[in-house]
Amino acid sequence: MRSYFDALYAGADDPYGTRARWYERRKRALLLASLPRRRFRRCYEPGCGSGELTVGLAARCDSVLAADFSAHALRSAHQRTAALPQVRLAQHRLPQDWPVAERFDLVVLSEVGYFLPAAQVQQLAQHCAATLDADGVLVACDWLAPFAERACATQEVHALLDAIGLAPLVVHREDDFCLRVWARDGRSVAQREGIR
Predict the structure, then answer these.
(1) Alpha helices, DSSP H only, in 82-150?
(2) Residue whose C-alpha is closest to residue 138's, from 180, 105, 107, 173
(3) DSSP letter at 51?
(4) What angle do CA 64, 21, 175 make, to 5 degrees?
């Protein structure tokens, strides 16, 4: 898998077109709009790739730990986030390098879970449960179509994350991707703001 990503990022700093493609820009906007709070204290974003979503998360978070196992991807992410002091980059391989000693009130797993076999996704889910604060929010956004490097179906990834028992807040499904948001606090945004 490392050679796949190294080859991908060796030829371009943004191989998925996250800056230019409307599909990617729209998906990112949907993810950010689905967060149930305006601000977060500490976010963990493993599989940050070129760092485009990291920039959006940094605008909403006091601190973002963005990680990837590809050194090539991290170089691209560093260029994209160099002017953002609230962003810290790290080289992590999942699930073994999950920062188990840290706590987060937001964890974003965007386009990362399906690269792992189900047993490792289950470990990932357990790490989410163990490191999310009492007001923690978990986001998963994943491509649905088959592709050669897929190790786990998106439906199975989301089912394993759902099994940790957080309250489901958002389910957005299209032909191309599925976005889910869970939280320890199951109230809707309207309930949180006292509208109902």
Answers:
(1) 118-131
(2) 107
(3) S
(4) 90
Residue 101 main-chain phi, psi, to 5 deg: -85, -5
Q: Using alpha carbons only, what angle is made at residue 116 by residues 70 and 94, rounded to the nearest 5 degrees?
A: 50
- Which domains can be identified in the chain, with CATH numbers? 2-192 (3.40.50.150)
- How many other C-beta atoms are found inside a 10 Å radius of the C-beta of residue 33? 9
Residues 107-137 have pLDDT tens digits of: 999 999 999 999 999 999 999 999 999 999 9
DSSP state of 166: P
- pLDDT tens-digit profile of 135-175? 999 999 999 999 999 999 999 999 999 999 999 999 999 99
- Check: pTM over 0.90? Answer yes or no: yes
H helical segments located in the chain: 2-10, 22-33, 52-58, 71-81, 118-131, 154-162, 189-192
Return d(Cα 132, Cα 195) in angstroms, integer: 27
Question: How many C-beta neighbours within 10 Å does residue 37 have?
Answer: 14
